[in-house]
Every structure is written in C-alpha cells, then in structure tokens.
Inverse folding.
C-alpha cells in the first residue's frame, strides 16, 4: 500500500535542507542559483519548456521534498498528490480546481501560496514549518 499524504514526512524531508543558522552568508548563497536549485528545475523539466530562467525554485523545492518524502521504492512511485511544477500559479490553479485553496493563514505543515495583486498571479510557494525551538547543539555535537 502506498503512503498516504503525510505532513510529518514533508516536514522531515524539508528540514534536511534547512541551514543551522540564518545569516548574511546564507542569504547570499541563495541569491544566486546553486547547483541544487538547477537540479530542482531540471526535475520539473523547465529547460525543455524554456522557462528555467524564470521558474520558481521554491515551488520546485516543495515538489521535490513532497515527491521524495512520499516515494515508495517497492512500487517505484510517489503518493505525493500535487502536480510536478515550478509554477506557483499552476499550483494555485490546481488547488482552486479542487476546492482546497484558502485565504486563511496556513497551519503548521500546510503549504501556502503568495498572491501578487499587481501581476494577478501566485508568485511564491512555501511550507509552514512548526514553531522553531532553540537547538540544543549542532549536528554531531552531544546534547547537554
């Protein structure tokens, strides 16, 4: 049986990519497109459609962690229910067609879309993580 959609799996997969500290160096690193971001966009076949330069890496990231956190090696497939896209607006249309698009603030574990009133499209996709607790130590360090 394939894994049903799970907030815990999504959060766990996304958390593996979170840096331990927020800082100027981290922001600069993500201002330019990294090899990881390029890989996310390749997964969405953006280069084949010619939209790799404008594709939303954040939407591709949500698809990446969703797909792989729900991947079943035995079946060779993922139970991730959302379409593979690097377009926040495509994801918004998908949600609207299924009646699951909401204007209320997202709960922990839920995905959200950011609407641009100027462009009249969804321009960003994100994932609301649970409240962040202070870390007891860095990876590999003993917890006091």
């Amino acid at each position: 049986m394939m894994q049903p959609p799970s907030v815990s799996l999504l959060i766990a997969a996304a958390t593996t990519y979170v840096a331990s500290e927020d800082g100027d160096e981290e922001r600069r690193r993500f201002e330019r497109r990294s090899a990881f971001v390029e890989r996310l966009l390749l997964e969405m076949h953006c280069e084949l459609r010619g939209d790799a330069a404008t594709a939303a890496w954040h939407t591709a990231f949500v698809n990446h962690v969703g797909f792989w956190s729900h991947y079943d090696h035995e079946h060779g497939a993922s139970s991730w229910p959302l379409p593979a896209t690097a377009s926040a607006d495509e994801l918004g249309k998908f949600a609207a067609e299924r009646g699951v698009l909401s204007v209320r603030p997202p709960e922990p574990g839920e995905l959200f879309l950011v609407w641009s009133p100027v462009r009249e499209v969804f321009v960003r996709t994100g994932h609301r993580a649970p409240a962040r607790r202070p870390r007891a130590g860095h990876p590999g360090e003993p917890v006091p």
